[in-house]
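Dear support,

I submitted the protein below through the web form. The confirmation email said the job was done, but the results page showed an empty box. After a refresh the structure appeared. I'm attaching both so you can tell me whether what I see now is the final result or a partial one.
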Amino acid sequence: MARPPKLDAPAVAAWLAEHPGWTLEGDALVRTFETPDFAAALAFAVRLGLLAEKRDHHPDVLIGWGKARVVWTTHDAGGVSQLDLDLAAATDALAGVS
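What the results page shows now:
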């Protein structure tokens, strides 16, 4: 499956302006989601993993007590692609946030 190309900085900035909570760290979209406890963070990570597997695009996820940090980037493109934006928005929906 061909990966989409890296988006230019203005396109990423426009998306970030409409999606509070996400930041750009280097060449990746990053957001930390708060959860009630470790079990909830783990469950969120599992649900996110299933979503990612369906799209054949996988984030880095760091879980801890009461939090899950999600990082989306398209390594093949060398930065953020439309696929990352789509899956970051889907991550918000999965978490029940906007």
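Response: this is the final, complete result; the empty box was a page-load delay. The radius of gyration is 13 Å.
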